[in-house]
Amino acid sequence: MSMMRLLLFITHTPLLLLMSDVCMAGNRELLVTTIKQDPYTMAKGSGLEGYCMDLLAELAKKLGFRYKVHLVRDGSYGRVDDAGHWNGMIGEVLRGDADLAVAPLTLTAARERVVGMTKPFMQTGISILLRKDIVSEEASIFDFLSPFSTETWVGVLIAYLLTAACFCVVCRLSPKEWGQPESEENKFTMLHSLWYAAGALSLQGAGPHPRSTSARVVSCTWWLFALVLLSCYFANLSSTQPPDSAHLMIKGFEDLANQDIIEYGTLAGSSTLAFFKNSNNPAYRRIYEHMERRKSFVSSMDEGVTRAKEGNYAFIGESVSLDLAVARYCELVRAHEVIGMRGYSIVTPLGSPMLKNLSVAILQLSEAGELSYLRSKWWASSCMEEGGRGSGAKGHGLRGIFLLLAIGLGVALLIALMELTSRSRHTAQEQRKSCCAVLSQELSQRLRGGGTSRPEESAEKSKA
Length: 464
Known about the structure:
By secondary structure, the protein is an alpha/beta fold. It is built from 18 helices and eleven strands. It is about 55% helix and about 15% strand.
């Protein structure tokens, strides 16, 4: 019996401690400090919203505590000065002005020594943000297709095949192109129609050229289509090419350290700056010494993004924050290389009973997919919509010329039928037959292939 009680005590002790910690937190209102930074914490009327606010609400719901949020007074994340005093959100937690700090606070050894930090709720690293037009990317063998979207290229291929088929049909129907289908061979076969359309598309031309009005309508419409299409292609191709001054190839920090054309910097007093300062990597040390010598630091994330948008400046920062800037501003791009992987954590006072509960709750939210949902919610790209409007000339802007081509092909078919109907009416009057019967016979003979004369007609022609 004593052994059973001991097992029950050991089994239920963690649960009892967890419940007691939650009850202690729920007895009073927790003071939470944070900092304004998109999209973690943003002003919304008299309140706040963002990723961190949603995360805090989920944690409060799971652990059952009440809280009150205020912005950090000095607007800093938290760093130690020469006298050993911490400022920012870390300092407020240390002084007891706040019970929690919920913000994109990087988990570092220096902070871990003075405050409690939970399991990371987001993984990040260090990368580079810069304008697209000041660096050249590695050329691809399919770069010549970049002026048009995939949908446009598919549309051009379909238009080419339909035009060639329409040209072949029109030349079969028109009596001016194929006067005697029972004895003459049709020169405008499907193969020749494909060759003729390809020649027009390359502005070279390919004979023989059509004589009938209907076939010339097809030719003129296709020439106009080809002219507009090629003009748009070369205009878009020249716009996608980097300027002559953009000869740099920056894929990572090694390339950044080995050039002196583009200025670069990071957030003053940040963990990113400390990473380069404490690194033994020669390239990283050169980056830190360059920033220290040029004093190319920025005071806020927004300032870094603004300088990167203005050009000739590369901003070094947290990769998740840079991804947000890329999602919002289409002219920016983030380098592929990400170094110094670390995480963002929630800060509590050292030895706080809430630390373990918050870490467990964060892991539960991660396993349930809630953290991924919050990431997709607040990092939704608005650049895609702007990019769609900017690249509309590549697809939707050509919709009019596709429509004009379709109308031209339809008009050509109609004219060819009118030419054949006129010929059939004249033949019907000569042979005193029904116009519909003659027209039906002509259509059947021309669309079936022609070129096969009846024996009696051949005999008569041979006698003549």
